[in-house]
Amino acid sequence: MAMDRDQVLRDAAALLSRKSTATMDEVARAAGIGRATLHRHFAGRDALVRALEDLGIREFEVAFDNARLDEGTAVEALRRLVAEAEPNAQLLAFLVTENQLFEGDEVNEGWARLDARVGALFRRGQEEGDIRIDLSAAWLTEALYGLVGTCAWAVMDGRVAAKDFQYMIIELLLGGARRSVEK
Amino acid sequence: MAMDRDQVLRDAAALLSRKSTATMDEVARAAGIGRATLHRHFAGRDALVRALEDLGIREFEVAFDNARLDEGTAVEALRRLVAEAEPNAQLLAFLVTENQLFEGDEVNEGWARLDARVGALFRRGQEEGDIRIDLSAAWLTEALYGLVGTCAWAVMDGRVAAKDFQYMIIELLLGGARRSVEK
DNA sequence: CCCGAATGAGACGCCCATGTCTCATTCCTG
DNA sequence: CAGGAATGAGACATGGGCGTCTCATTCGGG
């Protein structure tokens, strides 16, 4: 029928990224379907959020695959990763803040997988001597998520130009704000 | 009487930082007062959040003052700023995510003042030649907030040691993750 | 010591989002 | 073209949090 589960999830993500308290009715309208239909496919709001979580994890698994994190230097891989993640930055921003709600109870294992891949990437960079070892891989992982989410918000609010998304994140994350004579 | 408005706000902030959906009843219990008393002092949940916003802005105004943003180099001032902001990092993390809800309607002007001060600090650093000019002051401001919030979450989740708070933020923000031969 | 103000506990009623259900309609399928 | 499945719109009951109120109790100033 007209109902495309993944498209509905994407529409829901687009709305909830901006207004995390949106009603099921608002989500349904945003997706162009009836509230009843929304409930037929997602047992409830909770199930919808879980589905969004699954979608996000799937998207980022793919993004990670496309970024070929194992090829080239870790720095190069990181650049590719940010580029691949950009289309789903809003979804990430939503899920990161939403996850604060899941207080320990049954956190989706997918996040651990993603964390592990990002963490491994930073560790590889550290072993190769390209990434500082005084900043833990765990923190760099969190910081990457945080910066992506922050930049996604900044773009939505018009404080950062959309075209600068990748540059702002990568340059700050890798090079920092301080101006150095020679890197 | 026993009711200390500011202390109640601090208790509320401590709880809401961890569980942003906490009930008015939970907030009251966390503050050690009755729900009725809480309502007597704050017209409603919305008023409570606004009061928290005011508290946060006041705290950061003071933190900014204490950091003496105009003294020394911008980089030094930034270090002092992060140090001064640390005690209120959780509150900032809460307010930053909560502010996403205030969709344009009557945003507290205090944020603009704070933004202006941080932005001016980064611009000063750029003019002095210590801060990169290819990263806009607006983005650096957002990134600072984002990193502080992210690190606060990471500390709460135990992914970053509390004692490393300032170091992780300042070093990443200023120096970036990339290891350079000489700065 | 006394009196007034503030508090805590609880009882309501209200509102809104949720989740379920029905029924007419539309759409695909065979 | 006919039948069945899926959808949309709406009605309905429910729950939970919110806001208000009352009343007994406690605290503190005079």
TrEMBL record, chains A, B:
Pfam families: TetR_N (PF00440). InterPro entries: Homeodomain-like_sf, HTH-type_TetR-like_transc_reg, HTH_TetR, Tet_transcr_reg_TetR-rel_C_sf. The keyword Acetylation does not apply. It comes from the Bacteria. Keywords: DNA-binding, Transcription, Transcription regulation. Residues 2-60 form the HTH tetR-type domain. The keyword Membrane does not apply. Residues 23-42 bind DNA. PANTHER family: HTH-TYPE TRANSCRIPTIONAL REGULATOR BETI (PTHR30055:SF234), HTH-TYPE TRANSCRIPTIONAL REGULATOR RUTR (PTHR30055). This is AcrR family transcriptional regulator. It comes from Streptomyces avidinii.
